[in-house]
Structure prediction request, 215 residues.
Amino acid sequence: MLLKAILFDLDGVITDTAAYHFKAWSWLAEKYQLQLEPDVETRLKGISRLDSLKIILQESNVPVGCYAEEKMEKMCIEKNDYYKKLISMMTPQDILPGIEPFLKEARRADIRIGLASASQNGSYILDKIGLRSCFDTIVDPSLLIKGKPDPEIFIKCAHQLGVPLENCVGIEDAAAGVEAINAAGILSVGIGSDIELKAAQIILPSTQQLKLNIF
Ligand code: B16
Ligand code: MG
Prediction:
């Protein structure tokens, strides 16, 4: 393929915010006396804030419709306020191994770089870890109609970069994200377990293996 753009997921690919997300959800669950088992953490990866809350409510056997939209929105704001305090401590040391050299290699090869993260804190996190200037574009997830596994976010990212889908690669750590990349018709790279990410066209055990010559 002729590679012209790389579309990155954030959490689990550029940096690991999953533990902070889960800590914040656990705090909220305790506050509202909801049940939150550790195995739910994986299911929240790549899933929007509101959809994550809906999964947690479902897991706690809260009947659908029991919580009004306004109440769920308030809970999402509370979770995010707590989460923002946790991520305010992030530094460039939180960049996952191999990401900085890979971004430099891509830049030298004149490849465009985009962020396709479900997180509304993406820009803030890139600033905190010192990578904001490496990105040519960031998709605003609040403007999307559907979240991952819908392909919208990756299609939008490629459009914002002005690169055809067939010249893009998408990198993800979550099953919902890999599904979204595949549905967009973009070459998918999964970072992590080959059982969880079996739908990915290329699977790498960690970000350390990211090199341009694998495409
Ligand atoms: P926020 P990604 C996702 O990031 C996280 O994996 C997911 O757990 C989180 O709920 C979602 O962002 C929304 O994040 O609450 O910061 O808007 O993997 O798409 O980079
Ligand atoms: Mg992710």
The chain has two domains: 5-15+95-214, 17-88. Strands lie at 5-8, 112-115, 137-138, 168-172, 187-191, 202-204.
